[in-house]
Amino acid sequence: MNYQLVPMDKSHLSQVAAIERECFSHPWSEALLEQELYNDTISLVVAEGEDGTVLGYGEVRAILDEGTLEKIAVAPAYRRQGVAEAILSAYIRFGQAHLAFLTLEVRESNSPAIALYEKLGFQVVGRRKNYYRELNEDALLMTVEFGDHA
Questions:
Q1: What is the distance between the alpha carbons of residues 143 and 121, in angstroms, rounded to a whole number?
Q2: pTM for the complete prediction?
Q3: 57 noted as active-site residue
Q4: What is the pLDDT of residue 119?
Q5: Edge-to-edge, what's the strand order for the sheet holding 123-132?
Q6: For a disulfide at 87, which of 28, 58, 70, 126, Cβ 3.0-4.6 Å?
């Protein structure tokens, strides 16, 4: 499968919003996603197929030398094909150059995501009790450290 990672722009919003609805129980609206495009602390990328199809996307918030993976999602039809790993690897390369660490929260039961994060060097550093209230589920707080870039 051929795709490239590109910065998200307005032309991607309807497809990203559709992936949001497929992947999250409380999806962000297209309007909210559009607001993120103009936030200087946010990096948004999409994996875009040769025909312009958005396969997945990611969002990292960076403040000073601290990064947080806010979102990463891949359309169900394109999962288990390396798309999420490519997006996250791009953010890790950015982190190695510009951040001290990158953190994320993940549902405790999301074994595939946890396995990917661990494969890419993230470690569990804490637990957020009842973080996903609607699921009555805890979240694992994971981080990967890069060194001091202050």
A1: 8
A2: 0.90
A3: no
A4: 96
A5: 3-7, 42-49, 54-63, 66-74, 101-107, 137-145, 123-132
A6: 58
pLDDT in tens, 29-57: 999 999 999 999 999 999 999 999 999 99
72 forms beta bridges with 58
Using 50, 70 and 90 to split pLDDT, how confident is the model at 73? very high
Identify the active-site residue in 117, 118, 134, 137: 117
Please confirm, yes or no, whether 105 is among the known catalytic residues.
Answer: yes
The domain locations on the chain are 3-145
pLDDT in tens, 78-102: 999 999 999 999 999 999 999 999 9
Q: What is the largest CA-CA distance in the chain?
A: 42
The active-site residue, picked from 20, 36, 59, 105, is 105
Amino acid present at 112: P
Paired with 71 in beta bridges are 59
CATH superfamily of 3-145: Gcn5-related N-acetyltransferase (GNAT) (3.40.630.30)
* DSSP letter for each residue of 41-76: TEEEEEEEETTS-EEEEEEEEEETTEEEEEEEEE-G
